[in-house]
Amino acid sequence: MEAVQILRQRARGRLLTNIVVAAVIAILLALGIGSLYSESLGYYRETITTFMVLFSIVLGLNVILGYTGYVSFGHAVFYGIGGYTAMVLMYYHGVNIYLSMLAAVLAAMGAAYLIGLIVLRLRGAYFAIATIAVLEAFRVVAANINYLGGSEGLQLPATYYRGYSIAGYHGLMAVHYIAYFLLVGVVALGLLINLYVSRSKFGAGLRAIREDEDAAEAIGVDTWRYKTLAYVLSSITPALAGAIIAWKRMIVLPGEFFNLGLSIEAIISVMLGGAGTVLGTITGTSIYHAVKTAFLTSFPSLHLVIFGATIAGIAELLPMGIIGWLRLKSTRLRFLLE
Amino acid sequence: MSVEKGEILGLIGPNGAGKTTLFNVITGVYKPDRGKVIIFGRDVTGWPPHRIAMLGVARTFQIPKPFPDLTVYENVLVSIKFSNRKMSDLEAAEEAKRILEFLGLDRHAHMLAAQLNVALEKRLELARALARKPRLLLLDEVLAGLNPAEVSYMLEKIRLAKKEFDLTIVMIEHVMHAVMEIADRIVVLHLGRKLAEGTPEEIATNPKVIEAYLGDPKLALAFVKRFRKQSGG
After folding, report:
1. Of A6, A313, B64, B96, which sits with the fewest C-beta atoms within 10 Å of its C-beta?
2. Can you give the pLDDT at residue B229?
């Protein structure tokens, strides 16, 4: 293939991804707007909200895990930091959700930088375990500090929600709809971040780090700076999702917000779809969420079995994930599927 | 020790002599306990590897370290992207193709690097290093594991690359006839110290070197004479 052909194929692939991403955001928006005016779509609003929360964490995780190859098992820590930061501002100072979200993401990015100073010195399994330790540390701290509500957490009174309204809904009723649209925004942001990483020199450097960190240094990649930046970027959308959910559910609890299970679900979704691809995040999260919801309603006590079976299945049959597997099938698909 | 601009310096010695360690010190992977590293007139002691690479230094690894889940083309392209040149996407793609063609890797351009055999892996190592348009090229046993035909091929490519890119090369090698043939000067390391330094003839006839490493003095000298004659003195 000539150079010009290569670039043409790549452009075609990017166009496809752009279309898919735009379609996903459009569908999410349409469902949201529809649910504002239609009673029956209300059920879908809730399940899609849950989907978008997982998707936000997945989109963050994909940057550090998928592109950089660092398996952040404790990634839910940023969801928790986002939730708690927002809740503290809302509970003690009555700050509105929008400013709280801003504070949440700044706190998470700062935490990612500081945590990274320690954990990014480690590689492979050591890094993974260290992130779990960090997650647990935050959970224990949150559960034992009164200012953060201790083991009972912090809960917002219904009066806090008086000022919010959307399309004719007010107060607590409005919150569910506003939260939905805020999450669409977060998902859009996450997709844009992933698209940027996928197409930039920065992303090429991250992939090099993933493939062989020493060789990456040898060709001139500033691995420390790139890893740190990736880790900080990966904290953004989980933190925003945490803030929104803290607001929507009116409560933060240490076990729920610093939740290892949430991390694991995100890892499964990333791996199932195809780590380090944009289409993979969409595919993996959708399939995982759909299967989980279906199983939860039919076999409520079996969902842990699903976790285990899925991980084992992916590791054995499809370590590259669905999109990753497709990309191996032919050169054309490799260029087409981003 | 020092390397002159434009020369090919052979670095030889028994296993464990410290040759790769020396490369690691030069490229910033290890920090020296004593002494300095000066490259292109700058004291780079203590610099991180990527910064030294940015000065125009490229290295290959003794055991090839390709980017396994990237294609051969993508391997070279990444290297070009970080070679600190302003290039459009098209220029970078064309440059990648050119380097692949130069090393006969174009047929395998869209194969995963993990699927390459040893000979092709070595060529990819060289391709990735050359893609950076370096001024100084450090080759670590780039001929190891190759059959005679492949060795000749690589030597030819190294010669061509040196001329085209105006390179200075330091080569760690155990394939004695290759080093004797291509090097302008040779440094011999033994137990972490410089044992001898000189032209290939001088090294081949140096009794200390023969005792520590070469074994048969007549054979080493024969290599030098044979190839000097072949290439016309």
Report:
1. A313
2. 62
Contact assignment for B78 to A6 by CB distance below 8 Å: no
C-beta atoms of A3 and B66 within 8 A = no
What does DSSP assign to residue A63? I
**Angle ∠(B104,B60,B143) on CA atoms, nearest 5:** 60
How many residue contacts between A and B have a Cβ separation below 8 Å?
89
Q: Which of B65, B90, B109 is opposite residue A214, by nearest beta carbon?
A: B65
Residue of chain B whose alpha carbon sits nearest to that of A204: B78
Domain count, chain A: 1
Mean pLDDT to the nearest integer, B5-33: 92
| Helix H or strand E segment including B194 | strand B193-198
Pair of tokens at residue B192: 């972490």
Q: Which residues, at least 6 apart from B83, have a Cβ–Cβ distance to it below 8 Å? A: A219, A220, B131, B132, B133
Which residues of chain B approach chain A closer than 8 Å at the C-beta? 27, 29, 48-51, 53-54, 58-59, 61, 65-71, 73, 77-79, 81-84, 89-90, 93-94, 96-97, 109-110, 112, 128, 132
Amino acid identity of residue A219, one-letter, is I
Q: Using CB atoms within 10 A of its CB, is residue B45 exposed (0-12), middle (13-18) or buried (19+)?
A: middle
* Boundaries of domain holding A295: 3-336
Q: Strand A154-155 to strand A251-252: parallel, antiparallel, or no bridges (unpaired)?
A: antiparallel
What is chain A's percent helix, strand, coil content, to nearest 5? 80, 0, 15
pLDDT tens-digit profile of A222-241? 999 999 999 999 999 999 99
What is the nearest CA distance from B58 to chain A, expressed in angstroms?
A: 7
Where do the domains of chain B lie? 8-230
- The secondary structure element, H or E, covering residue B59 is strand B57-59
From chain B, pick out residues whose CB is under 8 angstroms from the CB of A4.
Answer: 90, 93
Question: Is the separation of the CB atoms in A259 and A84 below 8 Å?
Answer: no
3-state secondary structure of B169: strand
Strands annotated E in A121-275:
154-155, 165-166, 169-170, 251-252
> How much is the pTM?
0.92
Alpha carbon of residue A121 to chain centroid = 23
CATH annotation of B8-230: 3.40.50.300
CATH code for the domain in which residue A131 is found: 1.10.3470
Average of per-residue pLDDT across B63-75: 95
Say how far apart CA A100 and CA B167 lie, in whole Å: 57
Residue A219 to residue B77, Cβ atoms within 8 A: no
- In chain A, residues with a C-beta closer than 8 Å to the C-beta of B66 are 211-212, 215
Q: What is the mean pLDDT of chain B?
A: 90
Question: If we measure between CA atoms, which residue out of A176, A154, A145, A140 comes closest to residue A251?
Answer: A154
Q: Do B89 and A208 touch (CB under 8 A)?
A: no
Mean pLDDT score of chain A: 93
